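RECORD TYPE: inverse folding
INPUT: structure tokens
STRUCTURE:
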């Protein structure tokens, strides 16, 4: 098989992994589409676009080392029981390909994962070898993200972290029960163990670096993971609770949510695996070509809820509780929280502290900081809020500015959360809402 064919197969096989910030759906309006407040989208030939922590857009070559796999994860196009063409790169081929693309400015980085074609440590060694040659022999200075192969040991994770910028072990499904059903060779304990190994090593390297300046960097872009949404029956509350705990326990940089793509239904991977749940019994609908719009909205809402955890200082229990186990599809989670806690409002913009401003729908972290900064030197009004970036069609129902309320023409209508809900539901086009400022 020639190299072009290998690229086509192994880039296609990698596109369902969202943990390098591209789910592969590429669906217009998806939260994964650049420019829509999302995190990347695939283009042919395995090049995806991804956003770095500091907001830069980078192009990554996203491929598998091999799509030969001993495991039989029901949701995966590469599962051993799938009817798909199989191939593998050699490390030399991958080094040449990456270096060539990098020299031509096609890419700024490499995302490398693999099917489990052999013992996990042997597979991991192949990924490490590729990264090591890139760094030491080919003069490659770009970004490298390596997948931690499930079952690989701490020694290999340590070695991988010396060459890669980021490592990721995919948690895949929110509970052990679902893993046992859909990915029986995987175990939550093993995956969490790898995350814990990474966390321990990272802390150790940081500690060493504080004492010994020459200590090498260990995966400076940290670790991330992916959760598939919609392949199993867990609710959003379970997913958000899990994410919250991953951020807390393992200093996870990112949890990526990937709307389940029914591989096998649309021609890739043969017949759908019978272990997949009956779609009509799930709390969302699937169509024949990929994640439905409803599932993409669910993915987008999870990203917004995740944003609340990481940047808006919400606790998981504030976002969803036993009575509300799913995020509303028609409203972003901050607005939904605000309407459930209407007594908290209105917030007086001229006096509120930063934490309080963050609770206001339509005022994001950047706008909150600008408000605090600007009001030190001058008083604010409704128009200046707009200039500072507030989304007033939402914020106006929840704020006063120097005592004045702008939420309704008739002030007597203003304090009715049901009416505000109706107004905001009409305005909300879920997939158009930006992630960063809501
Ligand atoms: S381990 Fe599972 S998810 Fe990974 S490539 Fe193999 S079948 Fe797919």
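DESIGNED SEQUENCE:
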């Amino acid at each position: 098989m020639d190299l072009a064919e290998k690229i086509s197969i192994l880039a296609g096989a990698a596109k369902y992994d969202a943990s390098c910030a591209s789910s592969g759906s590429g669906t217009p309006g998806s939260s994964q589409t650049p420019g829509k407040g999302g995190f990347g989208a695939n283009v042919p030939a395995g090049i995806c676009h991804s956003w770095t922590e500091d907001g830069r857009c980078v192009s990554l070559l996203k491929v598998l080392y091999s799509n030969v796999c001993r495991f039989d994860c029901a949701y995966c196009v590469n599962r051993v029981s799938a009817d798909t063409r199989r191939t593998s790169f050699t490390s030399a081929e991958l080094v040449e390909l990456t270096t060539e693309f990098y020299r031509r400015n096609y890419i700024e980085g490499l995302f490398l994962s693999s099917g489990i074609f052999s013992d996990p440590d042997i597979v991991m060694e192949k990924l490490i070898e590729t990264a090591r040659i890139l760094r030491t022999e080919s003069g490659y200075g770009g970004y490298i993200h390596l997948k931690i192969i499930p079952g690989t040991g701490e020694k290999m994770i340590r070695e991988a972290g010396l060459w890669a910028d980021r490592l990721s072990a995919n948690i895949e499904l929110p509970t052990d029960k679902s893993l046992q059903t859909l990915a029986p060779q995987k175990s939550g304990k093993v995956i969490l163990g790898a995350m814990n190994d990474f966390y321990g090593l990272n802390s150790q390297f940081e500690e060493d670096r504080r004492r010994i300046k020459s200590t090498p960097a260990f995966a400076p872009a940290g670790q991330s993971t992916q959760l598939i949404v919609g392949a199993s029956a867990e609710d959003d509350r379970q997913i958000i609770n899990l994410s919250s705990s991953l951020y807390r326990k393992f200093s996870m940089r990112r949890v990526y949510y990937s709307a389940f793509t029914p591989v096998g239904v649309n021609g890739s991977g043969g017949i759908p695996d019978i272990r997949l749940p009956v779609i009509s019994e799930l709390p969302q609908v699937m169509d024949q070509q990929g994640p439905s719009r409803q599932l993409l909205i669910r993915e987008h809402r999870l990203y917004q809820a995740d944003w609340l955890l990481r940047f808006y200082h919400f606790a998981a229990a504030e976002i969803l509780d036993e009575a509300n186990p799913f995020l509303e599809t028609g409203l972003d989670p901050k607005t939904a929280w605000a309407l459930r806690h209407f007594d908290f409002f209105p917030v007086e913009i001229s006096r509120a502290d930063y934490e309080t401003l963050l609770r206001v729908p339509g005022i994001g972290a950047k706008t909150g900081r600008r408000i605090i900064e600007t009001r030190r030197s001058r008083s604010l009004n409704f128009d200046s809020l707009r200039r500072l970036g507030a989304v007033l069609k939402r914020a106006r129902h929840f704020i006063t500015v120097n005592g004045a309320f702008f939420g309704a023409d008739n002030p007597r209508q203003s304090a009715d959360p049901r009416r505000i809900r109706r107004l905001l539901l009409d305005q909300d086009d879920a997939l158009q809402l930006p992630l960063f400022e809501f």
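NOTES: The chain has two domains: 3-319, 333-432.
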